[in-house]
Amino acid sequence: MRSEKVTPINQASLCDRTQPAECEKHGAFEQKVTMLMGKALRSQCPECARIAKEEREARAEAEQALNVRLAISRKLGDSLIPKRFADRSLANYKAEHKGQAEALRFCRHYVKTFDQIAESGRCMVLLGKPGTGKTHLGAGMANDLMRSTSHSAVYRTVGSILQSIRATYDRSSEATEASILASLIEPSLLVLDEVGVSKEQPSDFELTTLFAIINGRYEQVKPTVVISNLGPEQLPVAMGERCVDRLREGGMIVVPFEWESHRGKEGV
Ligand SMILES: [Zn+2]
């Protein structure tokens, strides 16, 4: 760019004349010159102008994404990911055999393509025996999304959700059932662990709550990851048929964990 004072001019109609000019970076361009109150205003190199505009837009977008995340964090406090699972990531999941490597691959792909997943609301279920690393992968997906993207993610066990809703029935409670449900519906991803953990039939309260969460997310086209020790045929009993129907919409991804438990051996 030459050393003359340059002002960007966008409206060609204001342009009085054009002249050849040279940008240090991008070479020759047609410069628009506009007379304004006796001063000659010269247009910027179009390529420099385009780059500057793109940078401005990228900055604004990043800022907006950060603001959304901060707003959700403020609403939920520090409890997005429980402390116990805060260090879990897909990177520190140890895949020791083929089944685990395959499960890890599915979860990596889910996070990697999360922009599309978020658009289609495609859900995922991690099913299989206890102690096979499902929780690590589920919390890891939530952590990785929170750390490396502008998406928000929440990891919760069904038990902790039911308990926090019951606690709102206490008069002194500040939270309401609606605010708790909203905090589970709003995030880009919800990882719902320990579905059907009790051997007994789920209570009406449990089924109603699960449906409110799953259906609330479904209506907003938001994906949910469900983790359970049950098999696929038992899931409708534990969650209710209607819940599983919502999860299936858009092609539910089922990741089976069929190998034996490593818990105890590794002390996990
Ligand atoms: Zn230029």
From TrEMBL:
<dbReference type="InterPro" id="IPR003593">
    <property type="entry name" value="AAA+_ATPase"/>
</dbReference>
<dbReference type="InterPro" id="IPR027417">
    <property type="entry name" value="P-loop_NTPase"/>
</dbReference>
<feature type="domain" description="AAA+ ATPase">
    <location>
        <begin position="120"/>
        <end position="250"/>
    </location>
</feature>
<protein>
    <submittedName>
        <fullName>DNA replication protein DnaC</fullName>
    </submittedName>
</protein>
<dbReference type="Pfam" id="PF01695">
    <property type="entry name" value="IstB_IS21"/>
</dbReference>
<dbReference type="GO" id="GO:0006260">
    <property type="term" value="P:DNA replication"/>
</dbReference>
<dbReference type="GO" id="GO:0005524">
    <property type="term" value="F:ATP binding"/>
</dbReference>
<dbReference type="InterPro" id="IPR002611">
    <property type="entry name" value="IstB_ATP-bd"/>
</dbReference>
